[in-house]
Automatic annotation (TrEMBL):
Residues 70-143 form the Transcription regulator AsnC/Lrp ligand binding domain. GO terms for biological process: response to amino acid. GO terms for cellular component: cytosol. This is Lrp/AsnC family transcriptional regulator. Transmembrane segments: none annotated. GO terms for molecular function: sequence-specific DNA binding. It holds the Pfam family AsnC_trans_reg. It comes from the Bacteria. It comes from Mediterraneibacter hominis.
Length: 165
């Protein structure tokens, strides 16, 4: 297996399970554990692997959180496009993610807060006061069914009565 193929296979496994055991991954890919460790270290240094995260069901953990998706329309900056504005927004600790998107808005901001009021205050006092921000639209996530490819919570059995012949 060449180095590029090895890197891609490692990334596929890590994306699904960042806690994968290096020895197990080495066996699955048919290479040595040292090769896996070296490839991962190189990809971390190159910022191909940007971090490791755990997906938590905060509702089950008993933690009240509000997640909002905020569409933001902005005036891009000459010679900088959207980068400077996006950087300014993602530096706020409340901001979970920022994406440049196509469509009627320019940026999609994911935000987490303790209450609806806290999120609304962020939008009105911090986000909307940025000179380049033209408008925003805020959507609150009411329930997560699937997040990062993982189904959140068990599937419910059918509520229909079983009919036997």
């Amino acid at each position: 297996m060449n180095q590029n193929d090895l890197r891609l296979e490692i990334l596929k496994y890590l994306e699904k399970n960042s806690r994968v055991d290096l020895g197990e991954l080495a066996v699955l890919l048919g290479v040595s554990e040292v090769d896996i460790a070296n490839a991962m270290s190189n990809m971390e240094q190159e910022k191909i692997i940007c971090g490791y995260h755990t997906l938590v069901d905060w509702d089950k953990a008993g933690v009240e959180k509000v997640t909002a998706l905020i569409e933001v329309r902005v005036t891009p900056q000459r010679d900088r496009g959207f980068d400077r504005i996006a950087e300014r927004i993602y530096k706020y600790p409340e901001v979970f993610s920022v994406y440049l998107i196509s469509g009627g808005y320019d940026l999609l901001v994911t935000l987490e807060g303790k209450t609806l009021k806290e999120v609304s205050r962020f939008v009105s006092e911090k986000l909307s006061t940025i000179d380049e921000v033209i408008s925003t639209a805020t959507y609150f996530i009411l329930k997560k069914y699937k997040d990062y490819g993982t189904i959140m919570g068990p599937k419910k059995e059918s509520e229909r009565m079983k009919v036997t012949p």
